[in-house]
Structures are given as structure tokens and as C-alpha cells.
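Handoff note, outgoing to incoming analyst
You'll be picking up this chain. Sequence as last confirmed:
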Amino acid sequence: LSPEEQQLFSDPQVKELLGGAAIKATLMAQNDPVPTKSDAADSTAVDALVKKGNEALQAKNYDEAAKVYEETLRAEPKNASALIGLGMAHQRAGRYAEAEAALKKCLAYDSENANAAFTLGVVLFKQEKWSDAMTWFEKCLSVDTKNSQAHHYLGIIANRLGLLQRAEKEFKTVLALDPAFGEAHFNLAVLYITWDPPQWDKAQAEYKDALSKGVTADENLEK
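Most recent structure output, in case you need it:
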């Protein structure tokens, strides 16, 4: 991956996927009984474990994060945040089979979980399983239509599969959703250079926009 693509896996992504209200999401049925004081205490303990796992994940202590998420799941086996966090911890440690297992378990419990679908797409992308990754990014977008990172991944995959018009469409969709997404401009520039014949003017314009939005200059692309 290029340095620009590597940024997709930065710690802010962890905060986006696991932060805020998502941490406290559960899969409780609507007809569950009213929580008792004991239930509330258990829920607080589970939330504390998930928070501890997230902190370990952000600190890049992947083994510790996995251990904490597994402890969470022993208390609450269907906890979506813990399953997604466990998937991310295994993915970042290079344990892709374990990552897939955790995320697929989450999706078995909640087939419409966009975060789990997105993260599974990342795991498959890292293994260069392009078609499978595309399927899960598309699943993510069927629920979360404005996920610019999912569109960006789809653009990269489409380009690698030789689907240049699809790639162009995905990168332009990224910019329609998030005009500050400089890496999409960068990848459009790369895309236009690879077309036959190359579209030099468009490539130069997109590269200029990428630089103006904070993307690091690339010596090979400038050549």
C-alpha cells in the first residue's frame, strides 16, 4: 500500500468505529425485561471492559486488547463492540483468520452492522481478497450510505481489478461526501495516469488538489 492508503488504518479509524455511542451498543431484544440493579452493574462492568480494550487497541497493544475483548465476550457473548474490537485487534496483529471469525460472528448476530461489515472488508483487503472485500464494503454501504472510506476502498479495489470507470466513480463519490479527502484526489491522479491513453491534464489537476489538502508529495508520481 502507498503511504496515503496506509493512512486508512490510522488510530482515528479506531475512534470512528468504536468510539462514542457505538461502544455501548448491544443486541438486546426489544422484549427484554426491565433491567434490575444487578443487570445495570453487569452492563457497567461490560462497558468498562470494552473501554479498556479500546484503549489497548489505540495504544497498539493488540494482544492485550484481544485478551480484554475476549473477557468481555465471556460476560456478554453477543457484544458487538467487543466482537468488532477483537476483529480489529487480530487484524492489526496479522491474525486474519481470527479477525474474520470474530467479525463474521458479529454479523451472524446482527447482519446489518455496518461497522462489522466495513471492518471485515478491511481484513479481506489486507489479504488482497479483492472480490470478497468488495462484497463487504458494498454491504456496509447498503446500511451506511455515506461512508466515504468504504467508497475509497472500493475505488482502490476496482482499480486493481481493472474496472477503471468504477474506480473513477467511487473516488468521485468519496469527494462528493468528503471534499477534504485528499487521498481520493491522489488516487484519481494515479488512475488517470494508468488509463490508455493517459489523461495527463486530469491527473495533474487531481494531484494538485491532493497536495492542497495535505497529501504528501510523491516523487514517482511527480516524475
